[in-house]
Amino acid sequence: MKKSIIAISLALLSVFAWSCDDFLDINQDPNVLGDIPDAKVVLPAAEIGLANQLMGWDFGFGGGYWAQYWTQAYAASQFKFLCEYTETDFEDAYEELTSGVLNDLKRIETVSAESTNKGNYYVAEALSIFTWQIMTDVWGDIPYFEALKGDEGLYSPKFDAGADIYADLFARIDALLAIDLSGSSLDKNYDMIFGGDLAKWETFAKSVKLKLMMRLSETAGYDNAAVITFIEANNLISESAKISGSTWSDNQEGKRHPMREFEAGGAEYLSKNVIASKTFLDYLINNNDPRLDVLFSKTGSNHEGAFFGDFNSKSDTDGDGVADDKEDYSTPLFAPDMDLVIMSTWEVNFFIAEAYARAGNNSKAKEYYDLGVLASLSQNGITSNDIIETGYAVWIDGTIEEGIKQIAMQKWVANANYQHIESFLERNRTKYPAVNSMDISFDRQTAYTDFPIGFLSVSVTGKAKTNGKLPSSPTYPESVMVRNENKPAQKADLLEKVWWDKKVGK
Fold first, then answer.
1. Degrees to nearest 5, angle at CA 343 with 158 and 202
2. Rounded-to-5 percentages of helix, strand, coil across the chain
3. Tens digit of pLDDT for each residue in 59-98?
4. CA 391 → CA 104, 345, 404, 420, distances in Å?
5. d(CA 112, CA 92)
6. Residue 389 in contact with residue 377, Cβ under 8 Å?
7. How far apart, in whole angstroms, are the C-alpha atoms of residue 503 and residue 501?
C-alpha cells in the first residue's frame, strides 16, 4: 500500500486525455532519453510525483506526527514508531524523489537543454532546485554533486555537506533567473501546476530563492537586508503552486488525493491510526480558530485530542469516566477535492513578513502576515477575516522575537493538512511552537488542565529515547547505506541537526 500511491502519477495522465501514447507504450523504455518524443511528456509525472511525496506516506504522515498535528490512535499500531521516536529513514520518499522525480526532471533538462524554447527546461530546473532543497533540508548531508549519474557508471556518489549543496542551489537559481524567457512557451496541457504560464513559473523560481535565503536565518551567512532588497525587487508567487483538487477522481483507485488513497479500499490508514494531537487541537479550540472544523471531525458536539505518543495509557486523563484508550477522538478531514500543495502563498507571505519583522518594520510585517493568514483561511474555504481583526491572530507590534513567534505559530496552523514536512522543518528553524517538558505521565489530570496552550509536548512513549527532545532529522535510508560504498556512518538517532538548524531549543 505504501508504494501503490506512486502509480497515481501516470494514471492521472489519462484523466486529461493527453497525447502521450508514445510515452506510455509498454514496448518502449521511458528511462531511455532517446525514446522521449518531447520533454514535455515527462513533466506531468514529475510534477505530481513531487506533490505526492510532499503529502505522501513519509512526509505526509511523518511530518504530520512530528509537527504534532496528529498522534497514533490507541487501538492501532501502524505509526507507533513515529511517536516512539524510533530511528526511521523515510526511505520511500528518498527513493521516489531521487530515482523518480529528480531523474524525471533531469531527463526533461537533458532533452530540452539545447532548445531555443526554454519553457520545459526552466520549469524542470526550478522544480529540481526545489526538490534538492527539500532533500537536503530533511536528511542533511546527502549525495548531490555526483548524484543521478548511474548512467555514467557512478553508483556510489559521495555525500556532500548541506552548506555546499545550498551554495550550489543558490548558484543554480541565480542562473535560472537570468534566463530570458521572451519567446519561450510551455504547453498548458502538460503543466498541472500553472497551466503553462511561464510568468507564474518565474515567480515560483523567485519564491524558491526566498525560501533558500530564509532557511539560513540562524546562520552566519544570513543577510536580512539582502533578503529585503530581493523581496522588494521581485514579484513572488500570488497563486499557490499546487495540483488542483479538481484533478482527482475520488471514486477511482490511483486517482485520489494521496491521503484519501491511503484511506480508501479498506486500508483506513487515517481513520484507524490517526487522531488529533491535543497540543495542536487545544491551540485551535482555545483560540476559536475557524479552521478547526475543516481540519478535524467532531466527537459528538466537541473535539477531543490525545497527548502525543500517549497510546499506552489506560487512565482516565480528562476525568470523564472513560479510559483514554476508549475515548472517541477527533480525526483529520481530507475532502475529495483537496488541493495538493507544493509551495503556498501563505508560506511565501509569512517569509516576507518574517524578513520585515527581523528588520523592525512592523507595519510591513503586519501587511504580509495578514496576507498569509488570509491565504490560509481562503484555502480552507473560510471567508471571514475576524481572527486578524478581532481574534487571536491580530498582529501585535512587539519585539522582533515576538514577531517571529507570531508568524511561526500561524504558519504551523496554515500548513496543517497541506505542508506537513514544511512545518517540521520550519519548527526546527524557528523553534516555534516551543516545547514544554511537563511529564504528562506523572500527573495526567494536572497535565490535562494545565499544559500550556501553544506549546508542543515531548512524546510520552518516546521521551526517554531522545532525552526529552524532538526529532531533528530522519536517519539515512537503509538502501543507501547498503548500496553506497561512500556512505557516512549511520546516524545514531533522530537528533542529528542539519547545518542551518542553529537556534537554541529542543
1. 90
2. 50, 5, 45
3. 999 999 999 999 999 999 999 999 999 999 999 999 999 9
4. 46, 22, 19, 25
5. 29
6. no
7. 6
Q: Mean pLDDT across the stretch 422-443? A: 96
DSSP 101: I
Pairing of strands 241-243, 274-276: unpaired
DSSP β-ladder status, 340-343 and 159-160? unpaired
SS3 485: coil
With bands split at pLDDT 50, 70 and 90, how would you rate the model's confidence at 33? Answer: very low
The amino acid sitting at 99 is S
Q: Please give the backbone phi and psi of residue 174, each rounded to the nearest 5 degrees, phi first.
A: -65, -40
Which residues are paired to 302 by β-bridges?
299
Q: What average pLDDT does range 180-194 have in this prediction?
A: 97
Q: Give the position of cell 506510455.
A: 24
Q: Which three cell numbers stand for residue 208?
A: 524558491
**H/E run at residue 243:** strand 241-243
Give residue 19's pLDDT: 34
Q: How far is CA 112 from CA 36, 195, 232, 279, in A?
A: 11, 19, 32, 48
C-alpha closest to that of 33 among 90, 116, 103, 126: 103
pTM above 0.85, yes or no: yes
Label residue 177 exposed, middle or buried (CB < 10 Å: 0-12, 13-18, 19+). Answer: middle
d(CA 238, CA 352): 13
Residues above pLDDT 90, as percent of the chain: 88
- Judge whether 122 and 173 are in contact, CB under 8 Å: no
**Residue 303 three-state SS:** coil
Cα distance from N-terminal residue to C-terminal residue, the chain = 34
* pLDDT in the model for residue 301: 86
Contact 329, 311 (CB under 8 A): no
Asked whether the predicted pLDDT for residue 28 surpasses 90, the reply is: no
Question: What is the rounded distance in angstroms from the CA atom of residue 251 to the CA atom of residue 419?
Answer: 24
The neighbouring-strand residues paired with 243 are 340
Closest CA to 191 of 183, 202, 201: 201
